[in-house]
Write a structure and sequence with these properties.
By secondary structure, this protein is an alpha/beta fold. The protein has a single domain, classed as LmbE-like (Rossmann fold, 3-Layer(aba) Sandwich), CATH 3.40.50. It has 6 helices and 7 strands; from the N terminus they run βαβαβαβαββααβ. α4 links the parallel β4 and β5. The longest helix has 16 residues. The two termini are about 20 Å apart.
Length: about 220
């Protein structure tokens, strides 16, 4: 299996844009990958944007993002207050937010939702990410849920057991409001990472998976 790394960006620093429809989406979808990148590479800036939230969940999301982004030189954590499940009805405003972000900086990697995710909020952000960023590496992460819409990803990031545990620990401690949900537990998050680790034969046993629809190797 071909291995890629980000060493060419070590001097100038690596800029990441993380987009999530809901307060725990980024952490669930690419939290382990972010921890690994921050630990191993020069990450100079991360913009972390969540769109649907309540006051309670916004506090949880901000605290969680701070924990994931420890060690990042510069970060901008934004939690909007759009209504969960109704992002499509605020599409004009959300599109305007994307255009504003585009003018602020040029990310090296954009993390967003899987295009074929069954949750309408997730699909909207994925579509807008592709509408907005035409010359960027976009990695679509996955969210396990009742809909059973996990696809067949084609890019994997190996995550060792220590970082997998760190990801899950932050999730469970940060989002107390989600503790009553039947799927929000260690077994769910660890199982998906173990399954993806098996699929890519990761020596670490664990991995996060992404859909990389367009990758240019120059």
């Amino acid at each position: 299996m071909l291995h890629l790394n980000f060493n060419k960006f070590a001097k100038s620093g690596f800029k990441l844009l993380c987009l999530g429809a809901h307060c725990d989406d980024i952490e669930i979808g690419c939290g382990g990958t972010l921890l690994k990148l921050i630990e191993n590479y020069n990450i100079s800036f991360v913009k972390w944007v969540v769109f649907a939230s309540t006051e309670e969940r916004a506090k949880e999301a901000t605290a969680s993002a701070e924990l994931f982004l420890q060690g990042v030189k510069e970060k901008d954590i934004v939690v909007h207050r759009y209504r969960d499940g109704f992002l499509n009805y605020s599409g004009y405003e959300i599109k305007d937010n994307f255009e504003k972000i585009k003018k602020e900086f040029t990310p090296d990697v954009v993390f967003t939702h899987y295009r074929n995710d069954r949750h309408q909020d997730h699909r909207l952000l994925s579509d807008l990410a592709w509408n907005t960023y035409r010359d960027h590496l976009i990695l679509e992460y996955e969210i396990p849920k009742y809909d059973g819409d996990l696809g067949i990803p084609n890019l994997f990031v190996s995550v060792d057991a220590r970082l997998a545990e760190q990801k899950i620990d932050i999730l469970l401690k940060s989002f107390a409001s989600q503790a009553n949900k039947h799927w929000f537990d260690k077994e769910t998050f660890l199982a998906l990472m173990r399954l993806r680790g098996m699929e890519c034969a990761a020596e670490t046993k664990y991995a996060e998976a992404f859909h990389a629809r367009k990758v240019l190797i120059d």
